[in-house]
């Protein structure tokens, strides 16, 4: 009768094996909890409070999707399969041990078929595990991809877990070599290894000795692994799921948190780690150093100082090294300036690729914006950015031109565009700085207006009451200026009568939709022009008479795609113009940022190896037959047009805004 | 170290300037007033001096549109006292009148040093700095880009054309006309300015006398007509480059 | 009380500044209205020889060791004395680091009206001043009975203030110049520039539009290809992207090259006054309304970054490299 014999082959001579096991495991658990608590308590003792235990059902859902399901890890094939093989196997082994404990101490049920299935499943997962570990060893020692940190701690963890599993397997195999039960094939791997022992011809007594030794070894290795878990690289088993559980659920990705205030109403800035929330400090500890964020980062690809991975590790290392000082009365080291360089913080384009890639849901962009808020208040801003902010503050646009010139682009149009401040309109078109003032883009703005007119749209603009929407001002950390712009725009909007807002600028779109208070924007839906065109074409209100037949590729703007999930509308519009769309390798939520966001277009460029926009243009050019790169953001159009010139691809690629494409197909 | 800075509000040149109905003055209806750029440098210099050796900085300006913003921004950078001079400035502001009105107030403050921008673009009757200096009976040195104070004495770096600089010893109290602050004017976050608006107060004084004597009378203001204009070269980069090479050859350069 | 026009000559380290001749030319025109003499006022020490080519009817020379180098306090005292005694019709000062330290102070001290930023004095007794960055001109009657005028260049050519005949020099008593509140400690020479841009024939000049230090290399390439050097306007020097010896402008050097090619320079008066002697100014700027286009011979409305490298290539080709 197949059944699980508790502590098979372990003698009682020096006391009950149960005692040893529970003592060792108890000891390891205590060490684990104490050490983990020591580390974890730094999060809330140093960091600011943050409520992350609302909407529990959503949080558990995330836990299942990301921590158990590992969907983010699986977004890359090889490492995905590799990690899942290891992680799921361990979930199974953990479950198996738990079941064995229940069977041993509470209710015996691992009997008969239960037991056989139990053994089979465990053995199968042991195989998966070993495949995973082999893949991991290959990756870490032979492949050595750049994004990984190759350091002994990771090797040590790999060795420990392998030894644990091998220990288990070998123990099982030695037992099978002695027992040789009829159902041995239900533990196929164990039985296979057992053949080795059988072949040696060793006596049962010898085999029992080996069994005991391996069992003790297994127990010791598990003890060591558990006790050292908090200080080794395996700590992500705890911190990863915790980070996933406590991740941002209360607001959309495109919405930044306001500047926190003390009880007295004074703002709190991230001058030291104490300015970050406990969850942001957990972000640091949850990092597994996988480097996927780094790989996706446009600033890193341009070979600049910014690596999102190193930034987060900077928070982690800072907490570990400065923790005691931060809690004591000694000199508290500055976060930015000492731990992390000013320059690094400014290099971010806030594209959100890092956040999208991270398997443990670290939120890099929020931490960077918090650090920038501090730098701005300290005046540590480069002169070009200073000018852009001063201009935006004074004139409401970053170009430094009078606000009275904002609607000058409308002059050639007949009939005149309605003034939404003076008469009610159905669609209020929020034009945005770049579309209004940039001489090279005015053409696109005019075409957009003509498309709206052709579709018989009832639309108007705010003329010179419009100000920069403030999306990038906010991401640069100038929260005060952002509030000022938001107040002015909201005020202007509140005096108008309109049903919906439409804009061609994804940055304005993002902040109007996600960050402007509902009474500034009212309950008015906001559309990007791609969405509007999609609706108009779909309903037949806008008729396209020509089929352009170009082979094109489309760049998903960061603030339209990744931040707000608008991927399909522009694609349908492209299709409607009769163009054939060939996707770039990095498309949809993996689109590679043009490099202008997060205020970067207002800053000194610094040393770059290859501009992100150039890398993207080269990616487009590689697609055979593609003649046009279609964009849906004025900044993208600007950046890519420049990049086409600087990479010498004028013969191969033209950059067209989506509106230009539609205009050509009218 | 007691420092006073005189800041002027001048028309913003970004806006298109027009002449009013009288034909002899600027039409101020749409003109925006902003701080004279060199006065911004003077404020920055005063804050730098305060940071280096302690003391107090007082900023004075006329009660024109935008004055509050100028004063609060200065306070956010570190200025201690803010003074606004009230009066009827509808007829225009001449630097002579400004200097005389300020002199009474500045005398009370008993400063060690008075700083102001060495010039402003609308200085039709001279610059405020030297006019004020003489009203105060203090020495004046202009085109200054470096100031060092020690033991009640000042060493000043004065710019001459061609990059030549003179180091001068100037007895205090004195008025200095700033050409450039030692560091570019710092950025101050809007939130800081807003915060300062809650905590700082602007003192108001009246202009006891408004004596514009010394300013010339302007009969007519007009926009210059460019008598010439460049011959524009058009085309794409290639075309333009070719044409330019042709011009270089014409001038014997190639 | 006379109808004479006094011109306060500016000189530094034994060099008479160009503005002095511009003022003499203006004085000549104004004298046609007042009927008085053009009198050059020269303050200095052992500096009589500088007056050789003044287009003046007379030179009043004040010699004192305290006047050897420009000293605002000393010059103010000497001029207060002179103007107070002689009461001329007009006194001209340069709108410079020398003249601007004098004119306003004397306006208050002597209670005389001051016309600032003046470009020209007409035969019919009017002044024309340039303000608001050159966007606005102000015209009026030259104040009477005595007016102080601070002059900017641009209205007259230097040659108009020069003469082959030396004017008669009269030495005048100098008042006591003691207990001066300002004293010269020393001069600090500009960092030894590798080149004297005032002597160069081909200049490629960059303005704020160059955006950062690294892009200057593009201008260097073009300059090198043309056989010239790179110069800049004030904002570039203030940022530290080029050494001060490359500054072209009011507080920098006046240049007179054959070709003055500007990249991203808008044409502010302080810069323009230093380049009007160029044979050909070629301006490249994205703003069609930039004032530089009013004084340039050729203009290109284009982003300089679209043009520089192409132009450099073509120049190299033309030179056969």
What does this structure look like?
The complex is a heterotrimer of chains A (666), B (254) and C (321). Chain A has 27 helices and 9 strands. Chain A is mostly helical and 666 residues long. In chain A, the strands form 2 sheets. Chain A has a 5-stranded parallel β-sheet with strand order 1-3-2-4-5. A 4-stranded parallel β-sheet of chain A has the order 7-6-8-9, sandwiched between helices. In chain A, helix 1 crosses helix 12 and helix 23 packs across helix 24. Chain A is elongated. The mean pLDDT of chain A is 93. By secondary structure, chain B is α/β, with parallel strands linked by helices. Chain B has one domain: 3-Layer(aba) Sandwich (Rossmann fold). Chain B is 30% helix and 27% strand. Chain B contains 6 helices and 13 strands. In chain B, the strands form 2 sheets. In chain B, strands 9-8-7-10-6-1-4-5-11 form a 9-stranded mixed β-sheet, with helices on both faces. In chain B, a hairpin with a 2-residue loop joins strand 7 and strand 8. Chain B is globular, with a radius of gyration of 22 Å. Chain C has 321 residues and is an alpha/beta fold. Helix content of chain C is 24%, strand content 27%. Chain C is built from 8 helices and 17 strands. In chain C, strands 9-8-7-10-6-1-4-5-11 form a 9-stranded mixed β-sheet. A 5-stranded parallel β-sheet of chain C has the order 14-13-15-16-17. Chain C has a two-stranded antiparallel ribbon with strand order 2-3. In chain C, helix 7 links the parallel strand 16 and strand 17. Chains in contact: A-B, A-C, B-C. At the A-B interface, helix 16 and helix 20 of A face helix 5 of B.
Short structural summary:
Chain A has 666 residues and is mainly alpha-helical. Chain A has helices at 17-46, 56-68, 77-105, 113-143, 152-179, 188-200, 204-228, 236-245, 278-286, 292-296, 298-301, 308-327, 342-346, 353-357, 364-377, 383-395, 433-437, 442-454, 471-475, 479-494, 506-514, 518-521, 529-539, 568-576, 612-621, 634-646, 658-664, and strands at residues 418-419, 427-430, 459-461, 500-503, 526-528, 551-554, 580-581, 628-631, 654-657.
